[in-house]
Amino acid sequence: MKIIGVGCGPGLLTEQAIKELKAARSAYGSERAIELAKPYLRSTCRVKSIDDFKSLNRLPQDSVILSTGDPMLAGLGYLTGEVIPGISSLQLATSRLHIPLSRVSVVVAHGRGHEKGMTDTVEELKRGKIVFLLADPKFDVNELYSRLQRLAIPLQIAVCENLGYPEEKIAVAPVETPPGTTAALYSLVIGNF
User: Fold this and answer.
1) H helices of the chain, where?
2) C-alpha to C-alpha distance for 37 and 31, rounded to whole angstroms
3) By the 8 A CB rule, do 8 and 92 touch?
């Protein structure tokens, strides 16, 4: 099995990923991942959209599993098989904002663990790290902003929406007047940057 990162938006696949996609006989992934990989899949490749990610380990061993972004950033890298990295939203956001990855701590609050995500964010900021927070539409950004304002630390917040897509938007503002979120596909970069 190969777990291939298809990037966080169009045109963000690596050469290795493209080579593997062109050779794939069967590919499984979310609708979004399939859309990103589709230009490189042969017409004879059997493509199946999946939404039940709990049974992926039961797929045939010659399968290709498509993971949006990079499989090792809240992706499918936990599966058994060869992992082929992709360009992640973390890489794109820090590149756009000129922030070295060595200054960043990743916090995942996507689909689960919203409270833990908030707590971890606060702890990492107290340690002087810049936080890349991978959230989802149900994450309460206003509650997070309220907690961050109580820290009394000089912070900026960047809301990164639709990274890698034509409608990409990054809004940066101080914690006192934080930017809002309007897209379902977003991440936050928080810290002294």
Assistant:
1) 15-23, 31-37, 89-97, 114-126, 141-150
2) 10
3) yes
Are residue 100 and residue 79 in the same domain, yes or no? no
Report the candidate in 180, 174, 182 with the shortest Cα–Cα distance to residue 151: 174
DSSP 80-103: SSEEE----HHHHHHHHHT--GGG
Domain range enclosing 10: 2-87
Is 29 found in the same domain as 102? no
In the block, tokens 């689960």 appear at: 112
Q: Please choose, from the candidates 76, 69, 24, 25, the residue with its C-alpha nearest in 3D space to the C-alpha of residue 50.
A: 76
Q: 63 and 106: one domain?
A: no
Per-residue pLDDT of the chain (193 residues; tens, 9 = 90+): 999 999 999 999 999 999 999 999 999 999 999 999 999 999 999 999 998 888 887 888 899 999 999 999 988 999 999 999 999 999 999 999 999 999 999 999 977 689 999 999 999 999 999 999 998 889 999 999 999 999 989 999 999 999 999 999 999 999 999 999 989 889 999 999 9
Q: pTM for this structure?
A: 0.92
